[in-house]
Design goal:
Elements lengths: L1 H19 L12 H10 L2 H4 L19 H10 L9 H9 L3 H17 L5 H8 L3 H32 L1
Helix pairs in contact: 1-5, 1-6, 6-7, 6-8, 7-8
Length: 164
């Protein structure tokens, strides 16, 4: 179980790191993440996937030899990077959990990432505005659900390797 728990913790951390990193924000370098997350949580799940931040890359004068929009775009590219190879797996596993379980398993790593300090179960439950026993239960159920899903994926992968 501890090996599976470590895998789940790694997947959760991959998801949180990507969510908090500035790599998705080329052209928009100073959004306050906690506020952005709160705003997105209030929106529907379909609009949650669509970022509302854009950057305009067009030249003031099309005949200009030193195109500032190209320079701007090249500067912005340094803020972009590819997703972690386990990111899609993390998203798939977390999206299959009930919202309260996903919130429970993501809360502590998210708070630690935002505030750069450790959080106890008590402090996390206060942030979530729920009793400690309910937070711990939801987190336990999230681990259980993700463990079951990973076990199915592992079984499939081992069967696939046997056939090949």
């Amino acid at each position: 179980m501890s090996d599976m728990k470590q895998r789940i913790d790694k997947l959760v951390q991959v998801f949180v790191n990507y969510s908090l990193s500035p790599d998705q924000d080329a052209g928009w370098h100073a959004p306050p993440r906690p506020e952005w997350t709160e705003q997105q949580a209030k929106r529907s799940s379909a609009s949650f996937r669509v970022r509302q931040m854009t950057a305009a890359f067009k030249s003031c004068d099309e005949k200009q030899a030193n195109d500032s929009s190209d320079r701007k775009m090249m500067d912005e590219i340094r803020y972009l990077r590819r997703k972690h190879h386990d990111y899609n797996l993390a998203v798939m596993l977390l999206s299959r959990l009930p919202e309260k379980y996903a919130e429970a398993i993501l809360a502590e790593p998210y708070l630690r990432g935002v505030y750069k300090k450790p959080f106890t179960d008590i402090s996390v439950s206060k942030e979530l505005c729920c009793p400690v026993h309910r937070y711990r239960h939801a987190k336990k159920m999230a681990y259980k659900g993700m463990t079951e899903a990973l076990a199915i994926i592992d079984d499939y992968e081992s069967c696939r390797r046997e056939v090949a």
